[in-house]
Design a protein that fits this description.
By secondary structure, the chain is of the alpha/beta class. It has a single domain, classed as 3-Layer(aba) Sandwich (Rossmann fold), CATH 3.40.50.170. The chain has 6 helices and 9 strands. It has a 7-stranded mixed beta sheet, with helices on both faces. Helix 1 runs parallel beside helix 6. The longest helix is centred in the C-terminal third of the chain and has 24 residues. The two termini are 18 Å apart. The structure holds 5-O-phosphono-beta-D-ribofuranosylamine (GRF). The site of 5-O-phosphono-beta-D-ribofuranosylamine has 13 residues, from helix 1, strand 5 and helix 6.
């Protein structure tokens, strides 16, 4: 039985695409059963449609509160019987209620080496800070933004003459490897969380 995934997006969807591509291999231990977008115009929805994956648009502006919106999303995820929720460029802060409901079943990808550079405008701040290395992180989600046990990270160099776009592209290429790799580890049951640290067991 493959692990069922719900993927939440707001925009471009290149990380969703990397998960779709990984799932197209018959040995990959997870399958995407639902894509939710809070934006009707999210280009990433096309990747899901082309792959024949169910999509739902839930406009957050139509809900009286963050928690009401999160409860509507949660109900759709439950209906899909997904066992893992993957945030992939989902540009809404989630309520503590949602983070608790999907505790240890909710993961995110962030374009920095967390805990460094939480939040937005990451690559701009990386450039300004003068660090020589950056990267990406896949982590379990906790109620505090961009925090939670780290599953996998990949590093890339910050090079002389770099621009935000150049760093973003270099990091994104690693994101597209890390997200499927993290999902695979979870789907194979090879992760334990002890004292809020991820422990990976051997093959
Ligand atoms: C990625 O850089 C991801 O790390 C961040 O938002 C961006 C989403 O890109 N959370 P895409 O929509 O997956 O192409």
């Amino acid at each position: 039985m493959k692990l069922k995934l719900a993927v939440l997006i707001s925009g471009r969807g290149s990380n969703l695409k990397s998960l779709i591509d990984a799932s197209s291999h018959k040995d990959f231990p997870a399958e995407i059963v639902l894509v939710i977008s809070n934006k009707q115009t999210a280009p990433g929805l096309d990747f899901a449609k082309k792959a024949g994956i169910a999509t739902i648009i839930l406009d957050h502006k139509k809900y009286p509160s963050r928690e009401e919106f999160d409860k509507a999303m949660s109900a759709e995820i439950e209906k899909s019987s997904a066992g893992l929720v993957c945030l992939a460029g989902f540009m809404r802060l989630l309520s503590p209620w949602f983070a608790e409901r999907w505790h240890n079943k909710l993961i995110n990808i962030h374009p920095s080496l967390l805990p460094a550079f939480k939040g937005i405008d990451v690559h701009k701040r990386v450039l300004e800070s003068g660090v020589k290395t950056t990267g990406c992180t896949v982590h379990f989600v906790r109620p505090e933004m961009d925090s939670g046990p780290i599953i996998i990270q990949a590093e890339v160099p910050v090079l002389p003459g770099d621009t935000e776009d150049k760093i973003a592209a270099r990091v994104l290429a690693e994101e597209h490897k890390c997200y499927p790799a993290a999902v695979k580890l979870i789907a194979e049951g090879r992760l334990k969380i002890k004292n809020e640290q991820v422990v990976i067991t051997a093959d």
